[in-house]
# Entry
Amino acid sequence: MNNNQRMELARWVSKYALEKGATESAVSISRSRSVQVDVREQRLDTIRENTENSLTLMIYRDFKFSSHTTNNLDRGQLEKFIAGAVEATAYLAPDPDRRLPDPSLYPTDLGRNLELLDPRQAEVTPEFRVQNAMEAEKLVREVDSRANVISASAGFGDNLNEGVRVHSNGFAGAWSSTSFGLSASLSIIDGTARPAGGAFARTRFLNQLPSVREIAEEASRNTLMQIGQGPVETGKYTMLLDNRVAGNIIGRIFGPMSARNIHQKNSFLLNKLDSKIGSDLFTITDDPFIPQGLGSRLFDGEGIAARRRVLIDKGVLKSYLIDNYFGRKLGLTPNGGSTSNIVFALGSRNREQIIAAQERAILVNSFSGGNASALTGDFSFGISGHLIENGKITRAINEMNISGNLLDLWNQLVETGNDPFRFSATQSPTLVFADVIFSGL
# Structure
């Protein structure tokens, strides 16, 4: 079934739901196919292939709402499925905010090509997947003869997602996208320690992936740099966040920005709209229109038109993430309750140049557990990384924690790099924070 056929079926399902008594309806029909090959010790460890066809029907009946999913797309069976869904919805409690989005929020230009579909994905063979994973695993263990290797592994995966969404009040949109991933990891012996590291990349198009050798060399380098790791003395340090892991901290702010948490008063950003929440260097934009972007889209999961929006401008919170339901409850116009591609305002130096300018700092390149409170912003995370002294990395660090408050942390942002991580929807550069509390010895 292609998207034209899905669209025809979705329109029929939506219409039939109205005939059976629904006030409004929304229908999503999608297909996803993912294949993942993992190799360990030059042997196939796992081969996973998952293909899923699904139809989700959302019923709005007299301000009552229910959602139903099936993988049976036969029209005869769907008639019974739809009738049962509409009937069941009648027994739910009404909620005046349970309605489809206002049609004025839907996109008007669905012909824009964001270049999210690689036609070569259909040509990727099982042999190709296995060959790439095998080669990456072989190279990661051979790239440095000094390493006393315990184990090495690598993986190659690809995904195809396509589908349509139809609303009874006028919206009809379709999507198709691909992605490809390549990873490698290595574990070695270092006395009584067992350092482990890795590297990964994910792209929309196959030819955008780094070479197998590049991934293997990065994984080996990240592992070898952990030799001699241990904690350093507790204190306040300048913290450099590697661009690959900065998304862990950045993502902690989006939950508190959601209309759901604002409405439930479970957010440290409550009543902070148009208020200063970070340093002047803290500017992030949600940009759904980046060609080939991993988060790019024309509309969100509710059919609301995607728009480029500045979320935080020079430290000032400019927007909440407002979905349809909680937007109605808050009396705010929905603008999309989730993010797409997150883009930072960039600085002038890359990671190496930033490191060279530090007298004493800690580079964080891995998180291990921890949490952050959406209500208070208080956080504590386990980290590993490297101590920087006089512009050079001098030793590996682990078994340490960072703690504080997210509002304080973003006000301590003193530099952003010019090196955004391009293999994620969160395109963060290297970030530098002053006076972060590290707990160790």
